[in-house]
């Protein structure tokens, strides 16, 4: 069976557009483009030097001969000559492998693959969102008599004389007299502190 009859080559030659993930051609020691047996798509890299590879947009050629002349004329590149009469042996096996690899990649990349989109990348696997960083909150400051040091609390919480919540209460009929208000109220000052009950006995933690 000839490589031309392989399922991979049949699939390749039936494609209207270049298979996904196709690599640009390499050149041989003579600087010539080496076009493989039966190739039908131009693999010239048309991107400027140093830029990301961008292959020629030409659709499928009807046969390799047309592709070869396209490369010579449109891209002004030297094309390596094909050795005649040798395509039955090892080259045929190579060709079959080549198309198998191309079609495997093509299928693996999926239909939504767009080689020319840099911004619109297919989203990668969903990374599990990291647990929120544990913020170490200080303990509620207390005076020597163990009562809550309210002014110190506001200072630590970055609140002026009143937090927004207490200010609202102050203006309302409840007339809050100070901030921080009672524990358990909406007072923002309390949010900056660890309540004694949930405090962890972390040793060596400097506040
Ligand atoms: Zn081309
Ligand atoms: Zn408050």
From TrEMBL:
Region of interest (Disordered), ranges: 115-137
Protein name stated in the entry: Uncharacterized protein
Highest taxon above the source species: Eukaryota
């Amino acid at each position: 069976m000839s490589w031309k009859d392989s399922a991979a080559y049949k699939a390749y030659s039936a494609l209207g557009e270049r298979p996904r993930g196709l690599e640009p051609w390499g050149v041989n020691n003579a600087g010539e483009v080496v076009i493989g047996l039966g190739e039908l798509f131009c693999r010239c890299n048309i991107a400027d030097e140093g830029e990301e590879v961008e292959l020629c947009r030409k659709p499928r050629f009807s046969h390799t001969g047309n592709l070869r002349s396209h490369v010579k004329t449109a891209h002004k590149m030297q094309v390596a000559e094909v050795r005649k009469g040798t395509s039955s042996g090892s080259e045929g096996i190579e060709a079959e492998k080549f198309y198998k690899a191309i079609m495997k990649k093509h299928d693996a990349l999926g239909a939504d693959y767009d080689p020319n989109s840099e911004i619109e990348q297919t989203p990668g696997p969903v990374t599990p969102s990291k647990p929120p960083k544990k913020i170490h909150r200080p303990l509620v400051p207390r005076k020597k008599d163990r009562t809550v040091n309210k002014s110190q609390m506001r200072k630590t919480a970055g609140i002026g004389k009143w937090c927004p919540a207490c200010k609202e209460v102050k203006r309302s009929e409840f007339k809050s007299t100070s901030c921080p208000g009672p524990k358990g109220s909406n007072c923002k000052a309390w949010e900056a502190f660890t309540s004694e009950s949930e405090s962890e006995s972390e040793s060596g933690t400097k506040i």
